Amino acid sequence: MKPGAEFGVFGGSGFYKLAKGTGSLSATTRYGKPSGRVTLAEIEGRRVAFIPRHGVHHEYPPHAVPYRANVLAFKKLGVKRVIGPNAVGSLKGDVAPGELVFCDQFVNFTSGRKDTFYDGPETTHVSTASPYCPQMRKAAIEAAEALGLGYHPAGTVVVIQGPRFSTKAESKFFSRQGWDVINMTQYPEAVLAREQEMCYLNISLVTDYDAGLEGDPSVKPVSHEEVIKVFNKNLRNLTRLIGEIVRRVSEERSCDCGSALEHARLNA
After folding, report:
1. Which numeric CATH code is attached to 7-118+137-252?
2. CB under 8 Å to 105, separation ≥6 — which residues?
3. 224, 24 Cβ separation under 8 angstroms
4. Is residue 206 classed exposed, middle or buried when 0-12, 13-18 and 19+ CB atoms within 10 A define those classes?
5. Helix axis angle, 67-76 to 186-195, nearest 10°
6. Which member of 115, 180, 210, 256 is catalytic?
7. Cα dihedral sign, 248-252-258-263
8. What CA–CA distance (Å, rounded) separates 76 from 81?
9. What pLDDT, on the 0 to 100 scale, is given for residue 219?
10. Is the peptide bond before 121 cis (omega within 30 degrees of 0)?
């Protein structure tokens, strides 16, 4: 299979393969190698590239994922649309494990991560007022509806540094802000895709209730083992959903993701 793809998918915790019997290639960028070989597949007649965000053996913890190399590897293949599934904890009682959230906002609580391709001398301020692609979110909502999956059409994900989970006090704080789910990898991945003028879709798969909901005696503090257990249980649905999204998204982009740099640079 020749290199080149329209879609790129980042596999999160527990999601290390997208399709069997596909070609693969080793990519190198100016930021080094991505977190794994890029596998190439054809889904619903369209070319899709896949990178396991944490590596095939989960060797890259959230704060050490080579985000810039991963995004640039997709860009070099011609990817215009990125699908970013990830495991998340719920910060609300009505957002239950096993459900999906198609987030439309994030709040960043990470620190020290390499989060831009533009370190100068050309000053670049990319807008992230609406960080996730509305066209892809619409297709994802329609796909989840068609497949009969439980989902929330919008939400805010708060991104923490990791690799540790939140304290109860931290989780209570996040919950009281009205945010919906919590994760460790959405930042800077989504922003870097925007800087490369790629559309980005967040698919948050809820695996647990976060520690801030411990007031409910039925809620236990999150553990990595439980996260992977729930994620694996819902992996088939996630794979079906991605295929349905790929089928439904129009080849023509009606969003403004592809022109993110148009008014982002200051000219002397």
Report:
1. 3.40.50.1580
2. 131, 132, 154, 155, 156, 157
3. no
4. buried
5. 40
6. 210
7. negative
8. 13
9. 59
10. yes
- Residue 112: alpha-carbon gap to chain centroid: 19
Pair 189, 10: CB distance under 8 Å: yes
DSSP H or E stretch at residue 187: helix 186-195
Question: Does the annotation count 180 as an active-site position?
Answer: no
Cα–Cα dist 268/261, whole Å:
16
Q: List per-block mean pLDDT (blocks of 10 residues) for the chain, which spans 268 residues.
A: 83 61 74 93 91 91 97 96 95 93 98 94 91 97 97 98 93 95 97 98 93 60 64 81 95 93 78
The pLDDT value recorded for residue 222 is: 59
Annotated active-site residue 210? The verdict is yes
Closest Cα to residue 240, out of 97, 43, 106? Answer: 43
217 Cβ neighbours under 8 A, 6+ residues apart? none
| Selected catalytic residue, list 115, 208, 216, 256 | 208
